[in-house]
């Protein structure tokens, strides 16, 4: 219970119960809400309740379609009107920095510290 209160979600929980209308849920378990009784879609209040205990809140955990809806770039939520997925698009994944799955470039110490030698087209700058 203290962990939940530390994340400062009591006010959000009460507001969601009183004034929120569930719009949908994404593949990560995040739930998206809008304010009941708003005049139009441009002025309605929209928010997300992140899955889990709420301590690892990260904006990159919101998929692109839901991000567009939260920021009023889309009138309809992806649960009402799914985004058209292009064949070249990769599947969304949250920011992996700081995790074992983070990108590590060639030559980094975690990859052995060795990189390919320069090919001769590089010349160091001299003042």
UniProtKB/TrEMBL annotation:
Listed transmembrane segments: none
Organism domain of life: Bacteria
Composition skew (Basic and acidic residues), residue ranges: 107-127
Short name of any one Pfam family annotated for the protein: NDUFA12
Segments for region (Disordered): 96-127
UniProt-recorded name of the protein: NADH:ubiquinone oxidoreductase subunit NDUFA12
Organism: Benzoatithermus flavus
